[in-house]
Write a structure and sequence with these properties.
Distance between the termini of chain B: 35 Å
Helix content of chain A: 25-40%
Number of helices of chain A: 3
Oligomer: heterodimer
Strand order of the largest sheet of chain B: 1-2-4-3
Radius of gyration of chain A: 16 Å
Distance between the termini of chain A: 24 Å
Largest sheet of chain B: 4 strands, antiparallel
Shape of chain A: globular
Strand content of chain B: 5-15%
Structural class of chain A: alpha+beta
Number of strands of chain B: 4
Order of helices and strands of chain B: HHHHHEEHEE
CATH topology of chain B: Muramoyl-pentapeptide Carboxypeptidase, domain 2
Protein name (chain B): Trafficking protein particle complex subunit
Number of domains of chain B: 1
CATH superfamily of chain B: Trafficking protein particle complex subunit 3
Order of helices and strands of chain A: EEHEEEHH
Main location (chain B): endoplasmic reticulum
Helix content of chain B: 40-55%
Structural class of chain B: alpha+beta
Subunit structure (chain B): Homodimer.
Organism (chain B): Nelumbo nucifera
Number of helices of chain B: 6
CATH architecture of chain A: 2-Layer Sandwich
Radius of gyration of chain B: 16 Å
InterPro entries (chain B): Bet3, NO_sig/Golgi_transp_ligand-bd, TRAPP_component
């Protein structure tokens, strides 16, 4: 916004006020499973090393997507279990909640997956996730020095994300 | 619930940041001119405009798709016909400011032509006789190919996009 053009990002969706320390972690994957970004704000327990953690997360999402599509009671045609669905086609899963955290998920038709892990009392995060996708476009996609498909190393993007995450209740 | 997404790009075009059209046209013209001087072969230049390299069409396309998706809020297209319509109406409008029309469908509905009446890339341009085979707007076919490839699940290209004159792009898909 300051350096790369001056385009207006549509105003961030208003979040209810809170302590500001709600978001725990964020992952961004591309369609091939490469973890483009992993940000951590509040994670007291780490059980796996980074590589395994990313693989596990991506595998989980892949399976959950297939499973939710297969179990959809409203859709007429169902693919076979295990056949990859085009992103955006069929039903897509939004989030799951445990007693200690809530994981929210959004996938764009181009295969970019954004995962946000937050406090379990958080409301629906589809709008904030869309806003993060918007940030991704503005800071990363439009950055001529960024090679698509590689991990993101952009300070402006990280700063904007941190700021936005702090504002989520 | 968000309002239904507009299928034309007008609303988005009004909101998106714009650059001076002449600057855009002249910059593109300068790029093509430089390529012709460097490469001398018209065929080589056609290939360069389309390909995967830093400035070329394909590389632009793979980034452009994400911006298009965030700005236009369009959900997944059901079939190829709809894809062609969305590219012609929303896509071109959003990025070039002009809409294209979709014509010349072939028998099985697997290929069509996108005609640009008013192509901003070719303002002020005249091709000399030595360059008659030049696909001046080949960058557009690279962009469309790149964007479509990112929007589909399979890594091999399912879409072919070739240039056919100053204002015409032919779009085809694999027969199913």
């Amino acid at each position: 916004m300051q350096f790369f053009g001056g385009s207006e990002i549509s105003p961030a969706p208003s979040a209810p006020t809170g302590s500001g320390n709600n978001a725990h972690m964020m992952y961004i994957f591309n369609r091939n499973g490469v973890c483009l970004l992993y940000r951590e704000w509040n994670r007291p327990l780490r059980t796996l090393n980074a590589q395994q953690d990313h693989k596990l997360m991506f595998g989980l999402l892949f399976s959950l997507k297939s499973f939710t599509a297969k179990m959809d009671p409203t859709s007429v045609e169902k693919g076979n279990l295990g056949v990859p669905q085009l992103p955006g086609q069929g039903c897509s899963f939004h989030s799951f909640r445990t007693n200690t955290y809530k994981l929210s998920f959004m996938e764009s038709p181009s295969g970019i997956k954004i995962i946000l892990v937050t406090h379990p009392k958080t409301g629906d995060l589809q709008e904030p996730l869309k806003y993060v996708y918007n940030l991704y476009v503005e800071y990363v996609v439009k950055n001529p020095l960024y090679v698509p498909g590689t991990p993101i190393r952009c300070d402006l993007f990280n700063t904007a994300l941190d700021q936005y995450a702090r504002s989520l209740a | 619930m968000a309002p239904p997404a507009p299928r034309t790009g007008d609303a988005v075009f009004a909101n998106v940041e714009r650059v001076n059209a002449e600057l855009f046209t002249l910059t593109y013209g300068a790029i093509v001119r430089q390529l012709l001087t460097d490469l001398e072969e018209v065929e080589e230049v056609n290939k360069q405009l389309d390909q995967i390299s830093i400035f070329r069409g394909y590389n632009i396309g793979i980034r452009l798709i994400d911006e298009f998706l965030t700005k236009s809020n369009i959900s997944r297209c059901v079939d190829f016909k709809e894809t062609a319509e969305v590219i012609a109406k929303a896509g071109f409008k959003m990025f070039l400011g002009v809409t294209a029309s979709v014509t010349n469908w072939d028998a099985d509905g697997t290929s069509c032509s996108l005609v640009l009446e008013d192509n901003p890339l070719v303002d002020f341009v005249e091709l000399p006789d030595t360059c008659q085979g030049l696909y001046y707007c080949n960058i557009l076919s690279g962009v469309i190919r790149g964007a479509l490839e990112m929007a589909c699940i399979s890594p091999e290209p399912n879409f072919w996009c070739t240039h056919q004159g100053m204002c015409l792009v032919r779009l085809a898909t694999h027969p199913r």
